[in-house]
User: Fold this.
Amino acid sequence: MLVRALTDHERGGWMLLGVVVLLVLVVPVANLVVLESSPFHISTYMVTLLGKYLCYAMLAISLDLVWGYCGILSLGHGAFFALGGYAMGMYLMRQIGNRGVYGNAELPDFMVFLDWDSLPWYWYGFDQFWFAMLMVAVAPGLLAFLFGWLAFRSRVSGVYLSIMTQALTYALMLAFFRNEMGFGGNNGLTDFKEILGANLQSDVTRVVLFVISALSLALTYLLCRFIVTSKLGRVVMAIRDAESRSRFIGYRVEHFQVWIFTVSAVLAGLAGALYVPQVGIINPSEFQPLNSIELVAWVAVGGRGTLFGAALGAAVVNYSKTVLTGALPEVWLFALGSLFVLVTLVMRNGIVGLWRSLMKMRSQRE
Amino acid sequence: MIAFHARPLWLTIWFAVVIVAAGVLSTSAAAAEVDFGAVVKSLNARSFDNKHTAAVSLAEIDHPRTVLVLQTMLDGKLYVRRRSEQVVFADKLNGGGFHLIDAVSGDDLGSAGRRDVKKIGVNNQLRKALRGLIAALSLGDPDPSARVDAIKAITQSADPAMRDILQRHLEGETDTDVVAAVQTAIVVFDLDADDPDVRLDAIDTASSNLSAQVREKLTAIARDDTVTPALRDAAVLSLDRIETRVNQYQLVETLFFGLSLGSILVLAAIGLSITFGVMGVINMAHGELIMIGAYTTYVVQLLMPNAIGWSLLVAVPAAFLVSAAVGILIERSVIRFLYGRPLETLLATFGISLILQQAVRSIFSPLNRSVLTPEWMSGSLEITSGLAITYNRLYILLFAGIVFLLLQLVLQRTRLGLEVRAVTQNRAMARAMGIRSTRVDILTFGLGAGIAGVAGVALSQLTNVGPNLGQGYLVDSFMVVVFGGVGNLWGTLVAGLSLGMVNKILEPAAGAVVAKILVLVFIILFIQKRPRGLFPQKGRAADN
Assistant:
C-alpha cells in the first residue's frame, strides 16, 4: 500500500515531485555556495519568496483536497492557515525572551505595552517547540473538527457552507484585531529573533526553512495523493458527485466530510506555520475573507481536483501577483478579477484541464 | 429709545422687553447719560464687593457702551487716572506707558505714562460675576442659540443676583429651547440657595431635569455632610429618579439604533435575497452594486451642486437604474452561463466585484468621497429633553419600510411578481407552464441589483463612500439572507431587524466588535440547527 502511495502518480504529480527535488538540490547550493557575483546566484530574498510560494502551494493542495475531491468549497481556509501561523508566531514570540524593546523576559512587548502583568493562560507552553508544533496541528484541526461536525451533521452544504466558512474567518479576523485577545491586535506578532536557537535573519536558516517547506510540500502532496487514491478517497469522491446517493447506499457522509475537512485544516495550519518564520510576521489580515477567496482562485486556475494543479495554480497566480503589484499595482485587481471570471467561464478545469484537452486534441488528430 | 431707531421694529420691541426685565423703566436718554457716567465712576471702588454692586447697577443701565465697559473691566484693561479719577480704557504701548480712551464718552485721550494711571483690579469672583452680567445683557440677542449660550455663561457665573434676571427673562421668552435652558439655570441657582425650603423644592423639581449640570449639583448635595439629612435624602431620591429616566431613554435609544441598523441590513440584504431566492445565484458583487448606488449619489450631487436638498430624490431613481443596468450586464455576460453551478457563480461574481472595486478606485480615486447631507436630513428630532433621534436614521428607517412595501407589492400584485414566485418555487415546472424564465431572470436580477443601488443611496448618508463600502456589507447581508431563509422577503425583514436589534443591545455590554462576533457565532450555530433559515421554503422545490 505504501509503495502504491509513493509511486502511483499522474504525470503532473511526478513533475511536481521532480520540481521539489530540483529546488531542494539547487537552491541551497545556488544561495550558499555560488558567489554573489555569479549569474547563477540566488539571493536570499528570492529564497524567501520561493519558500513563500511553496507554503502557498501546500495551502492550495489542502484546499483542493476538500474542494476538488469532496466538493466542499471552503471560503475560510485562510483561517486555518492563519491559526497555524499564529501558533508558530507565539513560539517565535516567546523565543525573543528579554531581547524585546522593553526587555521583559516573561512578556512579549505588546503585552508590556498594554500593561499586562502576567502571561495569559493560553500562552503557556508556547516556549516549548514541541508544544507549539502540536498546537500548529491541534488549533486548526480542532476548529475544523468542531465546525465541520456541527455543519455536516445538520447537512449544511453547498453555498450555505461556503458562506458559513466565510463568516467564520470574518469573525476570527474581528476577534484577532482586538488587543484584548492577547495576540498582538492590529500589529500581530512580529520582530522574531530566532527559531530553535538559529538566527532567523541568517542565510543558512532561511535555506533550511526553504528546504523544510519544499519537503513538506512533497509530503503533503504524497499524503493527499495517498488519501484520494485509497478506498476512502473513492467514497469521498462519490460524496462529491452524489451526496444523497452515497448516503442512501449506507455511507455516513458526514463522517467522511468531517474527516477530510479536518485533515485539510491541519495541512493548512502546517503551511501557515512554515510561512510565518519566513515572512517574519503574522497579523489578523491573514484572516481576511479576501485571502481565502484568493486561495480558491489559485486552485481554480491550476485545476480543481488535481492536487499538483492546485500547487501549480498557487505558484502561477502568486508569481504574477508579485510581478504585477510591483510593476502596475492598479492592474492587479483587474487581473485577479478577470482571472476568476475567465477560469469559471472558459477554463473550467484550469491550466491542467486546458493542457489535457490540448493533448487530447493532438492525439485525436494523429 | 434713540439707540435703537435704526433697527427693525420687532428687534426694538425685543430689546424693550429685556430692558423692562432688567428693571429699567423708560428713562430719558439724557438722564441715562448722566447716570452712566456716575456709575462708571463708582466702579473705581475700594472693595471688590462695592465694585460688584457698581457693576450690577451699570448692567441695569441701558447704554450702548455698557457691555464694552464691563468687558474691558473683565479683560483687566479698565484703569483710572490718578489725578482726575477719570475712568479710562488703557492699552499698553510697546515703549511703555498707555494709550487711553475715555470710558464714558469713548474720546481718544492720547497716551499717558505708567505712573499716571491705576488699574481697577478684579478678582476671580468678580470676573465670574462680570461674565454673568455680560451674558445677561446678551440675553437680548435675537438668535435663540446665542441666548442659550448666554444662559449657560450665567449659570457658570453662579452669581445669585442673576437668578432674578433669569426669572424675569422667562416671562418674555417664547423659544422653547431657551425656556428650557432658563429653567435648568434657575434650578441650578436654587440648588445653591441659602433657604433650605427653596433648596428642597429645587431638588424636587430637579428630578425631572436631565442636564449634566443639575446632576452634578445634586450629586454634590448628596455627598455634602454639612447639609441637613433631609436635603441629602431628597437629593439621593432625585438622583435615583433621574437615573431611571436616563435608563429608560437609553433603552429607547438603543432600540431605535437597533431598528436603524436593522433597516440598513434589510435594505442591503433584500436585493440579495431576491436574486439568491429566484436563481439560486450567489452574487458576491452585490456589495459593489450597493457601492455603485452610493457613487451615483455622489455624481448626482456633483451634477446639481445648487440643489443638494433635491439631490437624494434624484439619486434614488438614478441609482436604481445605474445599478440595475450593471446588474443586468453582469447577468447577461457571466451569470447566465453558470446557472446550476452555484459555486462557480460565486467565484465569477467575486471576480466581478474585484473588477468593479478597482474600476471605482481608478475612476474616482481610492480615497473616500464626501456625499453631502441635505438640510432636511441633518439634525435630530428631539422627542423630550435628553431623548433625540437623528433625522437621517429616521428617514432611512422609513425609506427601508417603503422599499420593502413596494417590493412586496411588485412581487404579490404584478404579473412579473407572479412569474418570479413561480420560478422561485420550481423553475422547471414554471417553464413548462409557459413562463419565459430567461426574461424573469433578467428582470429579477435587474430588480435585485437596482434595490442594492437604492440601498447605496441610503448608506451614503451614514457611512463613508469609498471603494470598500460594499465589501463591509457583503458578509452581513449574507448572514441576514441565510438567517431569514432564502427567497423569503418577510424572513429577510425579520432577520435584518432582529440581527440589528441584537447587535445594538449587546453593544453597550460587550463592545461593538465583540457584539458583532457574537452575532456571527450565533448565526453559525443557528444554521446548524435550522439549515434553511428562520422561514424555510416549503414544498418539493425546497430540497434540490
Q: What stands out?
A: Residues 2-365 of chain A form one domain.
